[in-house]
């Protein structure tokens, strides 16, 4: 299978007023095309740093990061979903979703506007295009944020704890919605989360990171039954996978 993203021997250092911090230690992993991968690890280990490097916001101190086999990050090929949806309250749903098109002014603008309309209809949001974000539920806001990203047709989606601001019940529902959209649209995704259950239920592969300087401690490939993340939680292997990852992270804390 073709890789969308590949980290090869990536190290990252950054400077503070007092010291040089060694953040990432020889990171190696790949995310295949249309694969959903997750990063889990101790707080402060460098998960978001990996996303920032992938997005081209930071540059590795050494090693290579390949996007579609190219050692050059094309930021237009990467979509980013943050902890907050960052919808502008003074713009309508339609104006929020087409903001990226408005800013980038792509040559195929009309095609992208048509795609935005199709996605809104496909995922039951077209009836809300003239409403403001404050009239939407938390789950609907996240769907709007995701569709805004998808209208620019990225090859890779980076999800930085996009459900953390939601209550537990809404979070489960939105995980299902986002998972369905990403899989239906055949997108490649890399999720950062502190929630082990969330990672297991949504992912094809989980990368377990060590304490800083982070390295890939384990790579777990998943094949759980169930069509949605909520249904995958009912798989007989779910609890044993949770225990395995929990032990790895707990042992990591004890060692440090």
Instruction: Give the low-confidence spans.
Output: none
Structural class: alpha/beta
How large, in whole angstroms, is the Cα Rg?
19 Å
Largest sheet: 6 strands, mixed
Shape: globular
The residue-averaged pLDDT reads: 91
Q: Overview of this structure, please?
A:
This protein has 256 residues and is an alpha/beta fold. It has nine helices and nine strands. The strands form two sheets. Strands 5-6-7-3-8-9 form a six-stranded mixed beta sheet, with helices on both faces. It has a three-stranded antiparallel beta sheet with strand order 2-1-4. Helix 5 runs parallel beside helix 6 and helix 7 packs across helix 9.
Helices and strands in order, then pairings?
Elements: E1 3-15, E2 20-32, E3 36-40, H1 47-54, E4 62-67, E5 78-81, H2 93-97, H3 99-104, H4 109-122, H5 138-150, E6 156-160, H6 168-184, E7 188-192, H7 196-202, E8 205-209, E9 216-221, H8 229-232, H9 238-255
Parallel strand pairs: 3-7, 3-8, 5-6, 6-7
Antiparallel strand pairs: 1-2, 1-4, 8-9
Helix pairs in contact: 5-6, 7-9
Offer a few descriptive terms.
256 residues, alpha/beta, Rossmann fold, 3-stranded antiparallel sheet, 9 helices
